[in-house]
Design brief:
Strand content: 15-25%
Structural class: alpha+beta
Distance between the termini: 31 Å
């Protein structure tokens, strides 16, 4: 099993647990250059809010889009949008990525901005 298959297997297990809870989830995806976050409805059919380093307003305030500062900015922005939409509690779906570095920075920034998970 290669690295991507292992990550996808971890992601599938985590998503099945979140689905059983019936919780709104904060899902992330990262590449070497960007990080993406979206809040997905309980049934998994709709994206309620989203933020990414590819968006012009977020990208303008950053020197580099593939670092911890960029991830923290995305976390802060996604939390602000979610709270404005009336969403305060989510389940964190890290998509099989390890909880450190950019993933941890995004989660910490989202918590500080008002999301509970």
């Amino acid at each position: 099993m290669d690295k991507k298959q292992s990550r996808m297997k971890r992601a599938l297990k985590l998503r099945s647990r979140i689905k059983k809870l019936g919780a709104t989830r904060l899902s992330i995806h990262k590449t070497t250059q960007h990080i993406y976050a979206q809040v997905i409805s309980e049934d998994g059919t709709r994206t309620l809010v989203s933020a990414a380093t590819t968006q012009a307003d977020i990208k303008a305030g950053l020197k580099n889009t593939g670092n911890i500062q960029a991830a923290a900015e995305v976390g802060k922005r996604i939390a602000q949008q979610a709270v404005a939409a009336g969403i305060t509690e989510v389940a964190f779906d890290r998509s099989g990525f390890k909880y450190h570095g950019r993933v941890k920075a995004l989660a910490d920034a989202a918590r500080e901005a008002g999301l509970k998970f």
